[in-house]
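Supplementary Data S3. Sequence and structure tokens for construct A.
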Amino acid sequence: MRLLALVESPDHVCRRYRVLAFEPALRAAGWSLTSEPLARGLLARSRQLRAVSRFDAVLLQRRLLPAWQFALLRRNARRLAFDFDDAVFLRDSHDPRGLTSRRRAGRFARTVRGVDVVLAGNDFLADAALRAGARAERVRTIPTCVDPADYPVKRVASREGPPELVWIGSSSTLKGVEARRPLWERLGRAFPGLRLRVICDRFPAFEGVETIPVPWSRTTEAEELAQGDVGVGMIPDDDWSRGKCGLKVLQYQAAGLPVIADPVGAHVEMIEPGATGFLPADDDAWIAAVAACADGEARARMGAEARRRLEAGYSTTAWAQVFAAAATGTDEPRPNATRPPNFTREKPRPTGVGGPARRPRSAAESRRGRRGSD
């Protein structure tokens, strides 16, 4: 049996974490995986969308196709899945035109209504698919996962001064960090000698904070994370951010780090204040959180618990069989039965997608329906 994944690009982060990570599980289930970027140019794209008939199942990742292209894909795909881990029905937080896009919302609705299964990266995105008209029995919530074996665990080091904070991401997501300049400079005044390790392709500068620039590399990112003391996550409080699946947080936790992050979206599910990190709601709370992480023993305790919870609930091993079954159609249809752990809070409903939403299943129902994640 053959599965084709149509992805944005060969080196896209979502291909690595939401497709290739589960290739061993697909092979174990008797499926081969072929991954192709969507072809450029109308003629090449048309040929590619017709050629999908050679495969037993197709996974379209993130891309929202024009009506004629989606119709061509749907007509030729024996089974079609749509996987997304961002609020692709919206523009991003920093777009001057605002979040809402009628074109994106229309393409998104057409896609989630027309595929055989929707694989959403979190509950907010799953609800967006339902509101856009996806049938409940075709929607699955499968979180972005990491393999803990790829991350060396932070070793407690005796170092004077405040904890070294670490942030990892791309140039685009760095905008969320830079937008908090007043907070960073206040932190610099509150904690003389504060250092921020930035793993990225460009680097910010804040008065009173020493930036340690670390050019991102796939081969070194895990080791560089483990050099920090506390992971940080800063995202705007909007629907684009609620669609994020918390990859940064998962990477910090895999490295055995406590995490300080804004209480927005997936952060609220992934971090338990005082147990695995902190969710400061304002600048005063951020200062208190950094102060609490100055204790090396407390950091080690929270980091170890964060790693333990990640292994149980957000590792590739925990979700591999669920993904393989959902992507290939070998699972039993049931209304959105797979959910990340700790689903205990009501989530904001997404804007820009329209339609009524089904009520999310309870945490107990989700855990009973989840396979391989305990």
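Construct B, processed identically:
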Amino acid sequence: MARVTVEDCIDKIPNRYDLVLIAAQRAKDIESGSRILVDRDNDKNSVVALREISENKVSIEDLQKSLVMGLQKYVEVEEPEDEEVEILSAEKELSDLDETFSSDMLSDEDISNSMQIHGGDDDNFDLEDASDIDFDDDTDFGDDDFSDESDDFE
């Protein structure tokens, strides 16, 4: 197969400098083990990269991104401002407190099971239930002022 030249790739990437950089990045990718998308025909990696670009076998945008990532020495990481750090730490403390209290609290089901609900026929007092009550207890309940003799309310 005939060798590819830079002129064959100019219609894909108009800037020659960008073309050389992108082709070099693709050649590095091939060298590091990336799969070749065209027949090698005993060509070097740089020629294979140019052939892939000229035949639209590779994504130029992806190559540009990997080129930029490979050339970056320092990746700027946005650090949160002091207020954001305080808010995040407060939210973490609140979530820790929520976890602590949620394990100590009773569920709605536990609360409803422990509550006595009276209604219907259960409100009537059964005399058989009163057999345990000791009416002979001489405990003074402080009702000396209310005797049976004072029926003035008639």
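The first helix runs from residue 6 to 9. The chain has six helices and no strands.
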